[in-house]
Amino acid sequence: MKSLSPKELETYVDEDLLRVINREQINFIYFINARIISSYEKFFRFFIPDSTKYLVLVSSDLHLKFIKESVIRAKEPLEVSCYVSSKLPPMSFLIIVVEKKEVK
């Protein structure tokens, strides 16, 4: 897992998807190699910060619906948006934490 800056998104995200992303609201961006994950749900629960909104971008060879459902089960966010990006290397995905969950 590698942390990225918003400026690095252009390397991994298709141009049309960049328009969907509001860079000012981004808290964290993680580039993840899916080959190292044995349980997506456990990975998301323990290694991704809590948030109310996530944006997930997957490579075309990964199962979009499965990853989205794993994030929802692990984090119970209010919103998860998922897209396929052709610029991502095989077996990889980005998790963008858009709104950090406030601790009460």
Strand order of the largest sheet: 1-2-5-3-4
Q: What is the assembly state of the chains in this entry?
A: single chain
Radius of gyration: 13 Å
Instruction: Based on Cα principal axes, name the global outline.
Output: globular
Low-confidence stretches: none
Walkthrough of the structure:
A five-stranded mixed β-sheet has the order 1-2-5-3-4, covered by helices on one side. The mean pLDDT is 90. It has 104 residues and is α+β, with helices and mostly antiparallel strands. The relative contact order is 0.28. Strand 3, helix 4 (64-75) and strand 4 (79-84) form a beta-alpha-beta unit. 27% of the residues lie in helices and 30% in strands. It contains four helices and five strands; from the N terminus they run E-H-H-E-H-E-H-E-E. Helix 3 crosses helix 4 (64-75).
Brief digest:
The protein is α+β, with helices and mostly antiparallel strands and 104 residues long. Helices cover 27% and strands 30% of the residues. α3 (40-47) packs across α4.
Write the layout of secondary structure elements.
Layout: E1 2-3, H1 9-12, H2 15-18, E2 28-33, H3 40-47, E3 51-58, H4 64-75, E4 79-84, E5 92-100
Parallel strand pairs: 3-4
Antiparallel strand pairs: 1-2, 2-5, 3-5
